[in-house]
Amino acid sequence: MADLVQRSVSRRTLLKGGAAVAALGGVSAFLAACGSSTATTAPSAAAASAAAASTAPSAAAASTAPSAAAPSAAGSITFGSNYSDPVPQKAFADTMAAFTQKTGIQCTINTVEHNKFQDTINAYLQATPDDCFTWFAGYRMRFFAAQGLATDISDVWQTIGANFSDAFKTASTGDDGKQYFVPLYNYPWVVIYRKSFWQAKGYQVPKTIDDFTKLGDQMKKDGLIPLAFADKDGWPAMGTFDILNMRLNGYDFHIGLMAGKEKWTDPKVVTVFQEWAKLLPYFDPQPLGLTWQEAAQKLINKQAGMYFLGTFAGQQASDQATHDDLDFFPWPLHGTPYDSEMAIDAPIDGFMVSAKAKNLDGAKAAMEFLGSAEAANTYLATDPNDVAANKNADTSKYNAFQKSSATIIAGANKIAQFLDRDTRPDFAGANGMQGFLQTFLKNPTQDLNKFLSGIQSFYDSLPPQ
Amino acid sequence: MSSSSVPYAPPAAAGGASPSTGRKRRKRFSLLTRRDKLTLGLMVGIPAFIHIFLIWLPTIGSIVLSFTSWNGIGGLDKIKFIGFKNYENLFSNYPPFWPAFENNLIWLGAFLLIATPLGMLMAVILDQNIKGTRIYQSVLYMPVVLSLAIVGFIAQLMYSPNMGFINNFLVAVTGDPKWTASGTAIDWLGTPGLNFAMVLIAAGWRHVGYVMVLYLAGLKSVDNTLREAAAIDGANARQTFFRVVFPVLAPINVVVLVVTIIESLRAFDIVYIINKGLNGLGLLSVLITNNILGEASLIGFGSAIAVILLLISIGPIIYYLARTMGREAE
Lengths: 465, 330
What we know:
A: D-Maltodextrin-Binding Protein, domain 2, four-stranded mixed β-sheet, B: about 325 residues, MetI-like fold, two-stranded antiparallel sheet, 16 helices, about 70% helix, flat
């Protein structure tokens, strides 16, 4: 306790001036640089950019903080954030400002570019991580929990548990049965289109894959790319694989495959790629040089009729009218016994407490706040592309976009996270599946058995975890 | 020495036999004062310390780690030795390896055979004191001040198939929208092979300027009387350059050669910025990063790739050292 008081005093002295925030960022960057000798470049680089990105709310927090009598339990926390795109970044800043206002705990947000955050996460968590950090539910959350890199927050869940359905609680639970994660929102992977454009052209939402291909043929005749598609960064194609695998082989097979219990050489997987090859003529023919942002622009500019992506694609609509014009539907049914599952990818984003949290009480207070309906409402007010995980969140303010998301998620009987969140990271990343899927896209008519046995032997070559 | 004939002599006797010569000899050896010794010790010791800790330990560490399996989490006790398994997997179960290996060699070849000679050519032309030579020099040197990561950003703005400068320029010039339309546009970044060639052009753009500056400095130092003498002997410009100037520039040539090889082997940022070395842009350096620094954290496997890169690098290193040391010996 004495230590805590002392620390808060020294922090307060540090935080006196406006420049103090920058100083704090600098210190953490320096510490990170001195941290683990195995991979110093990663955390220091991350921390350096984090220091540069140290944003407005922290400055605001510093200036509004009571200078004389801060409650001793309050102090301050630091939050490592991957909400680096402008819209989510502002939404998260607003959320943490509300937290500061409510509890008096100051919060410094260190924002790191999304992909970079993910790439450096291992080193970051072992060096000098922030007290809390943004992360995803799924395999990788459980992995960090099992490796002792995250703090058990089961006690927080006793308070916030009533706010979440069992599905979300399960998604927040580690292999040891304890909770390590607080979900904020999720979003479905769906086929997005422009309502006004479809009305003008007389297109109908396709329910089955036959309707879908007929619609695609019509769009081609009209000079459109039926389905926008981009895979320069390697991961967007995973969404297509997920949905086809779940539609054709069912959710259980998909999850088993992700967990390594099923083999990639299984004939069931061959059919997925065969089906994909049949559908590829409806996809953008040149996906490998494009980012998802560029593909979303094609949809918005009416060069493409549809785009299969997470609803975050809506962030690319620069004005409200365009955003309101976007609508979407679940991937069409393939006429298999698994149609009734209506399985989708609906990844959950949320928060964790690092194992090395310096201000554990503050971090847990933050988790408790982030598990509240108030936090979800504040966040979604600025970033209305997602749906609250919290069942007590205010859905009356949902726009049409969010209402459709919520309906689709509620209508799905099976929900997966996403390929790179459902399987081991050394298999999913740039090292493995990203490259394999691109190989398929480059040459969809290749010998699929050979292609898949390559994937399987790569999987088998990875060390046991 | 005298003591060698006497295996054992009582210290007192030895001291008594020739106390003065002993002292004298000691004096002759200690030409250096204590301070000198300390200075020398520090001058040799600090670099040696840095060298050992920053070069040798990491190198040996990488070699040792390449025989292990470790996910980088937890203490050193979690490291498991698995023999040559990483190397077996590298050669048989890891499809990105051989294309990356080839790309490294192509990069080296393109720089050695195209970019470097082009830089030399620019230097020779700009050395002729033609009008506006300073402007040309600045223009060619400009990309050198950019990091390859920045060059990567610029390259993406140029090459993007639908929104990039090149394809939109083609539309503007020809008036035909097919150049940016999906399916008919040239996909500079997404077509394997083509994208690597375009990356080489972007990286070469920078390398030409680098070599030009090095070479220009060398050319300025060539004694003009050599050229005059060659002219008097009736040599034409070409003969003068290849028979007289080029051999005189041997030291610069070695530097340029070494710089070219180093630049080729350490190439990384431009490719990583564009797409993390996916889709035909793989390089060994990127594979090392993807394995070790990325979320994958296959430290042992990544180290095995690093060892391969080390083996490739050692050839030029030995050549360079042999040359410089050989010259010093002369």
